[in-house]
TrEMBL record:
<feature type="domain" description="AMP-binding enzyme C-terminal">
    <location>
        <begin position="213"/>
        <end position="289"/>
    </location>
</feature>
<dbReference type="GO" id="GO:0046872">
    <property type="term" value="F:metal ion binding"/>
</dbReference>
<protein>
    <submittedName>
        <fullName>Uncharacterized protein</fullName>
    </submittedName>
</protein>
<keyword id="KW-0460">Magnesium</keyword>
<feature type="domain" description="AMP-dependent synthetase/ligase">
    <location>
        <begin position="1"/>
        <end position="162"/>
    </location>
</feature>
<dbReference type="GO" id="GO:0016405">
    <property type="term" value="F:CoA-ligase activity"/>
</dbReference>
<keyword id="KW-0067">ATP-binding</keyword>
<dbReference type="GO" id="GO:0005777">
    <property type="term" value="C:peroxisome"/>
</dbReference>
<dbReference type="InterPro" id="IPR000873">
    <property type="entry name" value="AMP-dep_synth/lig_dom"/>
</dbReference>
<dbReference type="GO" id="GO:0005524">
    <property type="term" value="F:ATP binding"/>
</dbReference>
<dbReference type="Pfam" id="PF13193">
    <property type="entry name" value="AMP-binding_C"/>
</dbReference>
<dbReference type="Pfam" id="PF00501">
    <property type="entry name" value="AMP-binding"/>
</dbReference>
<keyword id="KW-0547">Nucleotide-binding</keyword>
<keyword id="KW-0479">Metal-binding</keyword>
<comment type="similarity">
    <text>Belongs to the ATP-dependent AMP-binding enzyme family.</text>
</comment>
<dbReference type="InterPro" id="IPR025110">
    <property type="entry name" value="AMP-bd_C"/>
</dbReference>
<keyword id="KW-0576">Peroxisome</keyword>
Length: 310
């Protein structure tokens, strides 16, 4: 984890507090990363979803002994339950836990414990904090298993943005709940699940389509290494779900093959009606979050290039 990210900062501080050794790499390189785990017998891996997906999919894992790994803690973005289960099956005897947090709430505000682990869940709200799920349009509080904007209150919440009263005011409800901008829900046991960013939802004919859901499905296709989903503007439907896909090296996969794969697993409004664009990589920030703004710019450039051919 990068040290400037809250996740990396807390991992470093708690490791010093508990007198744990930290292995630091100047930059990420696949074989160097795997060799470091093997040679230093690293037992705890703090990762973001792209690294978890790498560990679940890479054939290079067969060249190294990672039996030392006992626990993986994943944060910074949602990790699908399917990827979590596949990684557990591949590494054997490893515990995988997810956490959810944000800078405005002093890092993790939900955390899964080993006893109540559920694939895809970010766990329960940490002590002294309160959570509610709010309908972003009506402001109404929602019950279990209803998707809405996650809101939090408690001593870990920021006082506000420095010298920016407008941004501070817009980030809180009238009764003091921090609006995270993240969509999620809690189940009957109080376990929290993250769905996607509120502003990143694709609107297809009035239906809301979460890019993260489609990404979680596509990344489990055996020929897909990585994926990012955005909305393709459409006069009739509003937006059409479109996937940027990174293929595994040496494999052949077609646009139709992936469209049919997704269509067999989702409701009609979530199909990849916008198509599939094959790319060499998916732009992400250092903490592993997909840079959808860059993907949308790639889409504009692609559309412009196609129109120039006509």
């Amino acid at each position: 984890m990068p040290f400037f990210h809250a996740y990396g900062l807390i991992v470093s501080l708690t490791s010093i507090m508990y007198k744990r050794k930290i292995i630091v790499l100047r930059e990420f390189e696949e074989d160097r990363f795997l060799k470091a785990i093997q040679d230093h017998k690293i037992s705890l891996l703090p990762v973001a979803p792209p690294l978890a997906i790498f560990l679940e999919k890479t054939p290079k894992l067969l060249n190294y002994d990672l039996s030392c790994v006992k626990e993986i803690i994943c944060g910074a973005a949602p990790l699908s339950g399917n990827t979590e289960l596949a990684l557990k099956q591949r590494l054997k005897n490893v515990s995988i836990r997810q956490a959810y947090g944000l800078t405005e709430a002093t890092l993790a505000i939900t955390m899964i414990d080993k006893m109540s682990a559920r694939p895809g869940s970010s766990g329960k709200v940490v002590p002294y904090m309160s959570c509610k799920v709010r309908d972003p349009e009506t402001g109404k509080s929602l019950g279990p298993n209803q998707v809405g904007e996650l809101c939090f209150k408690g001593p870990m919440i920021m006082m506000g943005y420095y010298n920016n009263e407008k941004a501070t005011r817009e980030s809180f409800t009238s009764d003091g709940w921090l609006k995270t901008g993240d969509l999620g829900y809690y189940d009957n046991e109080g376990l929290v699940y993250i769905v996607d960013r509120l502003k990143e939802l694709i609107k297809y004919k009035g239906f809301q389509v979460a890019p993260a859901e489609l990404e979680a499905i596509l990344v489990n296709h055996p020929k897909v290494r990585d994926v990012g989903v955005v909305g393709l503007p459409d006069d009739l439907s509003g937006e059409l779900p479109l996937a940027f896909v990174v293929k595994h090296e040496g494999v052949n996969v077609t646009e139709k093959e992936l469209q049919d794969y997704v269509a067999g697993l989702v409701s009609p409004q979530k199909r990849l009606r916008g198509g599939v664009i094959f790319v060499p990589d998916i732009p992400k920030n250092p903490s592993g979050k997909i840079l959808r703004r860059q993907l949308r710019q790639k889409l504009k450039d692609y559309i412009g290039h196609q129109e120039s051919k006509l």
